[in-house]
Write a structure and sequence with these properties.
Cytochrome Bc1 Complex, Chain D, domain 2, 56% helix, 0% strand
């Protein structure tokens, strides 16, 4: 087996090919204004209907926002909010909210 084939095989078997990269929390903070009405300016909701985002795990937040955006998770309020989010936006928002306590 050549060295290149070994490296490719190692990456595929170890799951590194699907590794999640951290977003930019500062960029996420700038984008988070659209979330504040329901989830609070610092990711703490004042209404029990909407979850707190502060301190959630970054990968969990990414998964949920992508599910809303892609239509895999249905919610009449979240669908239009998530529809315009790019993967970078989602990464950045997840980095921001997961950094809050």
């Amino acid at each position: 087996m050549t060295k290149v084939k070994f490296i490719v095989l190692f990456v595929l078997m170890s799951g590194l090919s699907t590794m999640s990269y951290a977003g930019d929390a500062a960029a996420g903070k700038s984008k988070s204004a659209m979330c504040a009405a329901c989830h609070g300016a610092e990711g703490i909701s004042s209404n029990g209907m909407w979850p707190n985002l502060a301190g959630q795990k970054e990968d969990y937040l990414k998964k949920q926002m992508k599910a809303f955006r892609d239509g895999d998770r249905k919610d009449p309020m979240m669908a239009p909010m998530a529809a315009s989010l790019s993967d970078d936006d989602i990464d950045n928002l997840a980095a921001y909210f997961s950094s809050l306590k």
